Amino acid sequence: MTTNRPETRVERKERTRRAILDAALALCEDSSLAAVSLRQVAKEVGIVPTAFYRHFESIESLGLALVDESFVSLRAMLRDVRRPGVVTTFSGIVDGSVETLLRHVRQHRSHFLFIARERGAGPLSVREAIRHEIELCERELATDLARLPGPDKWTAEDLRVLSNLIVTAMVSTAEQLLSSGARPEAQQSAEKEITETARTQLRMVLIGALNWESRP
Amino acid sequence: MTTNRPETRVERKERTRRAILDAALALCEDSSLAAVSLRQVAKEVGIVPTAFYRHFESIESLGLALVDESFVSLRAMLRDVRRPGVVTTFSGIVDGSVETLLRHVRQHRSHFLFIARERGAGPLSVREAIRHEIELCERELATDLARLPGPDKWTAEDLRVLSNLIVTAMVSTAEQLLSSGARPEAQQSAEKEITETARTQLRMVLIGALNWESRP
DNA sequence: AAGTTCGGTGTACGTTCGTACACTGAAAGC
DNA sequence: GCTTTCAGTGTACGAACGTACACCGAACTT
To answer: How does residue A2 score in pLDDT terms, banded at 50, 70 and 90?
Structure first.
């Protein structure tokens, strides 16, 4: 049973703000943010168009808020991947990472979908925000890689380059998983194939890394 | 001096069609195709809006035409990369490939820009067309890789996986080159850094490939 | 209890959009 | 030469867009 005490003003505002973010995310499922109109969002939320401005000054700044929000769940995923050494074999790291990625893509479809779209097509400021967040991911990965035997003797530059490669491959994997989800009839087998490919690719890259000689 | 003979009807039609494609491509430089209106294109070309329908039945089918056109130049690039063995060392292959990529991105900016945008944000049919073309590229790369010592003993599946990885990395490199071109003040050094990264990544992947044991 | 703040309303505007329809005039076909 | 074809014209419409402006009423402040 819900307590029926009257809503405070900030609560109500926050609730509407959430509704706007959710509505925008839903509308972004099948077209880019630039193609979403203020009026559509307002109608979806159930407010009058001009009320939108009480929360965001433009669709673009709504986009920036959605980027922040999306990367909260992404960071949660990364924390999940690197949770302290339950597994230490290379195979274990690879399998665990890919499985975690799959789980989070399923769980936060619309966020990943939004990022994948706007990464290439959004307004400049949104693209830059996404690029920046991905760069942070690469840096975090680089510091993790630096603890592995082999890469621990590399130059910082080589570490950067390797994590860029890995993150790129994982972003691509996520995008493939997303588009496989658009056709639910054969989704399971498609997901299996995509994750298997991702696992193999990670292994190939790691083998390359183990045989790499960093020369400064 | 231009010969002044009267234009034939098909010539004139083709000329207008080209103008429409060029105008659309230009308008796509700073927003996605879905956000480009039929009227904008028509105004840019200098025809009345309804005349657009004499050439395309919708913006979407215009998009498909642009995909075709863009991949003509991309295929030209790939032919260029694989031109018969002037160089045979791994380093030679890598350096040559990356340099060719850079050259073609510069030369066909707007085409690459269009593909990069619509690959993630375009209408479904456009996204599928692009995905299909990229898959063709991966297949061609796979048959090339199959001639290399090492990969020549691989399973078809492993070859597919490796070329998917390489193509993904190259697509990402192209996208980075494109966004570096948006800020002309430091473009040269940015391009140098990006291509250097791409070279290193290709080498890392190839080293992984040389040490890979394909087990069926 | 009186006054202020502010999320949400309702109307109203000028613009731009896609597209329907009837048309024109020059090249193509006979 | 007369007819047909068809790329391009011009007008006209309803719908959707962003946004300006005056307003309301309930939650807050004092």
So the answer is: very low
Q: Residue B168 and residue A164: Cβ atoms within 8 Å?
A: no
Share of chain A above pLDDT 90, in %: 81
Which of the listed CATH numbers 1.20.1250.20, 1.10.357.10, 2.10.260.10, 1.10.3720.10 matches domain B59-210? 1.10.357.10
SS3 A5: coil
Q: Which CATH superfamily is domain B7-56 in?
A: Homeodomain-like (1.10.10.60)
- The confidence score (pLDDT) of residue B1 equals 47
Class of domain A60-210 (CATH, top level) = mainly alpha
What is the C-alpha to C-alpha distance for residues A69 and A61, in angstroms, rounded to an integer? 12
Query: Could you tell me if A105 and A177 are in contact, meaning their C-beta atoms sit under 8 angstroms apart?
Result: yes
Does the domain at A1-56 match CATH 3.40.50.1100? Answer given as: no
The type of residue at B30 is D
- A145: confidence class by pLDDT, cuts 50, 70, 90: very high
Q: Give the Cα separation of B25 and B33 in Å (integer).
A: 9
- In chain B, which stretches have pLDDT less than 50? 1-3
Which bases of chain C are contacted by protein, using any atom under 7 A from a CB? 6-12, 16-22, 26-28
Which positions in chain B touch A180 (Cβ < 8 Å)?
A: none
Q: Residue A58 CA to nucleotide C12 C1', Å?
A: 21
Cα dihedral across residues A141, B174, B123, B125: positive or negative: negative
Identify the contact set of chain A against chain B, taking CB-CB distances under 8 A.
31-32, 34-35, 116-121, 124, 127, 131, 158, 160-162, 164-165, 168-169, 172, 175, 179, 182, 197, 200-201, 204-212
